[in-house]
Amino acid sequence: MEQDRTSSIQSDIENWRGRPLETFQIIVNLIASTTTKGGLTVRCVGAGNSCERGIKVSDKELKALNMTRNEWHGEWNYVIVPHTVSDT
Description:
This protein is mainly α. It has helices at 2-17, 24-32, 59-63, and strands at 67-69, 78-80. It contains 3 helices and 2 strands, in the order αααββ. The longest helix has 16 residues, at 2-17. The relative contact order is 0.10.
């Protein structure tokens, strides 16, 4: 399974290399159009907000996030959702 996913993703990356990532919208569109032979699809939307560069996030702030890491490369693949009233 991982080999199939890896080869499919590698193919997508090579296609991305053929088109310059010049704008935020191009990047969002390329990510959103990602699929694999196994049926994986990716949802991606841009928030439209600009963020200040160089902001440092402390370990305490990072631990406070409601974040679930995926088993497969959790350092890259994770979900962050807002806290609910019962979480606080």
